[in-house]
Structures are given as C-alpha cells and as structure tokens.
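Objective 1.3, modelling of assemblies. Example input:
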Amino acid sequence: MGLLTVNKQGTHETYMSIEPEIRPAPPTGLDITLEFERPLARIEREIAELEAAQDEGKRDLSSDIRELRNTLESLTRRTYAKLTPWETVLVARHPRRPVLQDYLDGCVRDFCELHGDRCFGDDQAIITGFGRIGGQKVMLVGHDKGRTTKEKIARHFGCAHPEGYRKALHKMRLAEKFRLPVVCVIDTQGAFPGDKAEERGIAQAIAVNMMEMSRLRVPIVCVVIGEGGSGGALGIGVGDRLAMFEHSYYSVITPEGCAAILYKSAERANVAAKSLKLTAKDLKRLNIIDEILPEPMGGGHRNPSALFAVFERFVGDTLRELKRVRIDTLLKRRYERLRNLGSFFESPSARKAAGRSRTRSGNGSVASQANKGKASNGKKIDNPAQPRSSGSKTGEAATTR
Amino acid sequence: MAEEISTPAKDSETPPPAVTTESGSGRVDVPKGLWTQCPKCGATVYQKAVEEALHVCPECDYHHRIPARTRIKQLADDGTFEEFLADLTTTDPLKFEERLKYKERIRQAQQTTGESEAVVVGKAFIRGRPVILAVMDPFFIMASMGAVVGEKITAAIERAADENVPVVVVTASGGARMQEGMVSLVQMAKTSAAVARLDEAGGLYIVVMTDPTTAGVAASFASLGDIHLAEPGSMVGFAGPRVIENTIKAKLPAGFQSAEFMLEHGFIDRIVHRSSLRTEIARIIDYSGK
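Predicted structure (tokens):
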C-alpha cells in the first residue's frame, strides 16, 4: 500500500492545482470503485504490488513504479477531464467523498456546535455552530450525510426535516445579532420526503429560510461540496456568493427522479443528468453560481486535505472581501443578484417596442426592462423616471430593521 | 421536486378541450358537453349548473381546477383586470429535450390554454379595492414554475411594494419546471426575496392556495403570505405522495396533504369556499388598512 503515504507538503498550505500526488483515500471498508475508475484502480493495485515486492528487497523496481505512476497520473487526468454529467453525480456521491464533519476536522478550527431549533428538536441532518475558517470567525451551517452507517441513519443521509431548517435559521439570526458572517455548506439529495416533514411544514420552513436569508444583515457564503439537491439545498443556499466544487452537482431534481418522470425509467438517469445541466461548469455558464472551486486530480476523495485547503482559502478570501462592503450595499447587491437569477425569457412586444426605439406604456416598458435583467432595485434608484423608487424604500426599511 | 401530480381529474398530458373565453365557459377538467361527471362524487350534473356554481360541484362541493382567465373573471370586478408582462416566454436555456422538445411542449400548452405562460399577472379591483393579482393556470404544464413564472410573480410582488397596493396570488402548481433545470429552481429564491422586500415595505400579501399547490411553489412564495387562504380539498404539500410512501414504506392516510390537513397543522389561516373568496379577500384588505 505504498500510495498511502502521507502528503509531505502538509495539509492546509497545499493548494490543489499545484498538488501533483495522487492518493487513494484510506480504505474505509466502503472500498467502492466507480465504473469509470476501474482502470485507475487496476494500476493502483499494480503499483501497490510492485512496491510490496520492492519492500521485500528482492529487486529494484523503482523505475517500473515511476513509470506506472506516470501512467496513472495521465490516465486520471484524462478520465476526470472528460467526466460525463452522470459520472460527476457519481463522484459527488462517492462514499469516500469528504462530508461536512471531515471539513470540520480538516479546516474548521475550534468548532463549537450549537444544537436545536428551540421549537421542536435537533435535526442532525444539519450541523450548526461557531467556528473559525481561514482566520474568520463564522457561523457554520451545513448538511451532513454522516460517515458511518449509524451516523447516516441518525442524520437521515443529510436530508433535513423542517426542524433542521429552523435550527439553521435560528443560528443565522444569532449570527446576525453578533455580526458573524454565515457560511453554508450544501450536501444533500434534498429535503426529507416523509410524512412527518410534511406535517411540520417542510415547504414553509424552506420558504421562510430563503426569504430571511435574502435580508440577513451579515455576509452569507454558500458552497456546494457534494450534492445540491433541489429545495433542500436552497433552504440554506441563499446568499451573497454561491460556489460549487468542480465535481459537485446542483439540480432541481435528482437525475433518477427526472428519468422516472420523463422516461418512466430510473435507468436513464445518465440521459437526464445530461439534460438537466447540473454540473458546476454548466451552472457557471448559466450564471447561477459565482465560482467553481477546483478539486484535486481524481476528485476530492483522493486528497481531502487539498480539498479543505481550497475551501478554506475560498471562504476566507470571500468573507474578507464581503466584510469590506457596507451592509446596506451588500443587501442591495444580494437582492440584485437574486433578482437577476435565471432571467431566461423574452418578450416579443418589448422587442418590437425597442425596435421602434420608443417605450410603450404599461407592460411594454416593464417587459423590456425586465428582459434586459435591469428590473432590480439598485438600477431603479438611478432612474429618475421612476418616482416611487422601491429600491431606496427597501434600503431605508432595512437600515431601521 | 417537479413531480407531476396525477389526479383523478386531469393530467397535463391530455390537453383540455378548446376554450371559449368570451362566453365564460372556460375549460374544466371534464369533457365538454351538456352533462358532466364529477370526478369526486361521480354524480352526473348539468354542465351549466357547475359553471354557474363557479365550477364547484353542486352535489359534493368539489372545487374543479379552473384556468387562470376563468379565475380572474370570478375574482376581479368586471372589466377591471389590466394584464402586464402578458407575452413573456421562455428562451429555453437548457435546450431541453425529452419525448418532445421543450419549446414544442410550450407551444402545445400555449395552444391548448390560450395563455403564453403558466401565470397571468395584472392590476385589478376586488370589490372596489385595488390589488395586484397573480393567477396560476394549472392547465399550463401543471403551472410549473420556470423563468417566466418566477419573473412575473416577482414583478407582481415588486409592483405591489412600489405602488403600495395589496397583492393576491392564487397558487396552483406542480412545482419547479424540470425542463428549465436549475433556472427554474432559483426562481424559488428570487420570488422569496421579492416577498421579503414587500414585507419590508409593509405591504399586504394574500396567498390563495388552490388545487394543487405543491413542491417548489409551496416551498417559496406560496408559503410566505401574510394571510394564507385555501380552497377546500386542495392538495397542498411539498413532496409527491408516491415519493413519501416510498420513503415511509406505508400508505398515506386519506386527506394527507389536503388544505384541511395543512390548516390542522397550522400552515393555513382559513379555508374558504370559492363563492366566498371575493368577500374574504376584501375583508382582509380592509382589516389590514391597505
């Protein structure tokens, strides 16, 4: 098992893009190799065998080992450079992919967990608490899928009930009171689809969180570390910045669910995954996320410490940047960002009106304005033609809140 | 999230018969004809009688799903509805393709409903009180929310905040529109942020939940009203019943995820019969001093 040597470059200072070493994650008993990873696993095994033979001191095999390592590296690079969307989903769900608790151990210092929603219970699918990331004191809120079977069951595999979202909101309000920025870590297949969740108002819990997060008076940074599952992800996913790790995904519905509805067969999940445009690259192109965080070669599970380093640096840098902005300005920008999300529509009448280079009253002008994605309050303030500036009204109300 | 809700009444796959909005005989989820069978009680009733009862079954009070225009006609004072953003359509950002191209699916929905998208928004008066009115059309791809629905709802709520008039949103939706992927999901955040802004401005926001109000719409603007009204028997919930049954490995009791169920669990203020909606809305507006 020669490849299991510890990364000599230390843990936190290593930025993955300059990280040359490929390490399989330590065996956890869940030694699952994904279909497309099999050729890699075969070479890894060969290297291990050669190294074992070498350790016995029979022959000098170092050149063979070196060669195999090179092959492994280039093959890994090639494999991961052309992952299909469905393969990306599989990597995001990899049983060895670090979960929030690994981040807590790996790059959150002095974590102080805070439990409970003060109302019903303590949903372990969402972990909340004070911590330090990249030198910043923060309130951390995130899904945790659990590492062991026992944990996974206790945490409902990261699928939260309403009390989880209410706990998150309670802690975010605490953060607002004490002026701590909020860091949201998203990793869930979705909110828990059970009868108890419905009874306790899962829809309302998610809705209220989104509404309150849109006006929380501290910076909010959201990072998808694995699975971004629909409303369950959005419930702690509204903020000033949204980043995704390279091999994570974010989708309106699981590819299996989509395939079951559209093609009446969950087996066509790979087709659905492609259609849904759920990869970080696609979502960056659609302007839905702000940043793609690079992963170590071969996926985060091969080198968790490199993954944590990227996370730590991103959160630290982003918070430093956001903290420099006055909170009212930040809130205005946050609204504008949300307001313009997914503005993929057109209005024939507005286009015609624009073509005649004069604005029509009523729907025409509004439509054309919205169509250019400019119907945000920030822009309206600058527009003297609009006497009742909603933007400034919000701003005033926000300062007195 | 965007699971299609199958009902005994109607499936979005089969287009409803053609409309004659002029005469007010909008599409209901039964074949057109003189007589119609109630999908709930099975009684054969005179179609005209159903229409005169605002598309409520005279025998069992079943509230039929109704198209947006019919709803507007029922709610707004005669001739007061002024629509805005009427012709917004999606640009199909994902170039989504299934059995049908998404654009083609939209075109079909437009043809069968006569609407450009799944929500109609505008200014209107209800019993003489000015409101911004947004009505979702359950016959337009199950009133699923894509970029256009998100934009129109957001614009309606913003306008209500700007003009300081109450906003009434009549919800009916199968959730986020799968064919727009994440573009549809983020509409949940966008509309919720707009509600926050209306709230800051002190505006009144009334939600009227109708059959079905589910998934991504239930988990965003439909659950953020100052006042939640619901029509009797409407389905209101987040996850699809089949998905829940699959999770808990048990059958759900009858009436699970109904408006009555949500009232019992504290998420709805009042269940209101369709014939009383106008009065109730007007009363709430008066009490709020808007």
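Confidence is low (pLDDT under 50) at residues 1-30, 358-401 of chain A.
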